[in-house]
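Task: complex structure prediction.
Instruction: return structure tokens for all chains below.
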Amino acid sequence: MNALVAALRKDLLLQWRGRAQAVAIFAFGAATLLLFSFAVGPDSRALRQHAAGFLWLGLLLASTLSLAESFDLEVEEQALEGLLLLPASPRALYYGKALANWALLALLGVALFPVMVVLYDASTPQLAGLLGIVLLGTAGLSAPGTLYAAMTAQTRSRQTLLPLLLFPLVVPVLLASVQATSLLILGDPMGQARSWATLLFLFDVIHWSLGGLLFGQVVED
Amino acid sequence: MRTAGQSRLSLASVALGVVLLVAGSYWGLARAPPEIFMGDVQRIMYVHVPTAWNAMLALVFAFVCALMFLFTNDWKWDNRLEAAIEMGVVLSILLCTQGAIWAKPTWGVWWDWDPRLTTTAVQVFAFGGILALRAFAADPMKRAVWSAVACIVAFADVPIVYFSVKWWNSLHQAQSTPDTVSSAFHWPLRINAIGILFLWTGLVALRARLGALRLRGELAPPDGGPPLVTR
Amino acid sequence: MRGVIEGGWEFVIAAYAVTAAVLGLYASSILLRLRTERQRAMKQVP
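Output:
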């Protein structure tokens, strides 16, 4: 547990030191939101209809940048080998990294939300529910993303590999988050948002456990 | 020569599979009566359903290989894993194509967001991505471990994808399932299923052999001495 | 319920042709790759 806290502190500190990077990733996400509206055209009704989809696509695209970044640092100076020499289990390293990535992605989601509201006129009164969906959805991106970033950071052409591996895997996250967010924005007469949240929660439980179980294999020789 | 005997056995399995496939397809195309509602288009099912079963089976085998590799660290499971993933991806691509060809005359569109078709497409990318990862990982040991890990994660993901797409698309479900196939239609289906099974197991064995040869080349020291790993 | 779908043989033939082509091409690619690899291995270890 102590090792986990230490690993989390290390990764949060790394992200705080690299906050210029986080701002750049936010700018990237906001730019994609702007671009999506150009692809649809100035039809405010259609834009509002698809606002949730654009928000999550923007977040997904931005997440590949931040996830890849989180392991580039470890691989560059062979810091990972050093970390593995410490008397800490690789599981603690994984959960520290995944939690830090989750925090960054959730923050990114919260930051992109007002951009979506302004651009697409898609607000919701249920801010707490929306925050819950953002937390559940970004947790689903962060767990497999951290696991795969640990592999792809050590390969040639990692820029291509991480999205290639991650996108098919997080199809359920994208579907469920977009549906739930859409229901919150456009109204949810049947109360379906909760079932999508349950699906997200299940996905998170499965992938957070799998990641912890398998990460040791990935980094150890 | 043990290996020569093994490849002869694999070739025999492939040949048997081809014979069964030709027989089953002849039965399905020429001798089986047209279906009541679907007419002759239903005949696509005689090859489509066996492909679906075998694609799933190949990926289940890949999952087993991944677990076996992580537990034993024996290279032969890595070779089989690579072969099984490749076969599963080829069969899944084939499945999508057949599905699209079947969808056009029955649903009027090439593609429908049917949970099975969509999950198969996701499957192609999820497991195809692992083949790409293998191509870009230089170290054989890391490549083997990573593809085993990625295979387990992707395999666990397939049912979640299926259920989320099913739920997502529950508003316009217009599936015609093979359950509607009456018992008179079962034989060509079964023969083709067993034919594809023999075909792919033979091919996977040959592909694993190819992987083992490549691996031996990779692990061998450059001066042509004995290989570092003899397994 | 709509009636019987008439014809559609071109789709049936296309489906079987695609299946034969994909499986055939994949099988021959394996056999070809295996032969090249065997020749290379023979050259490496005489």
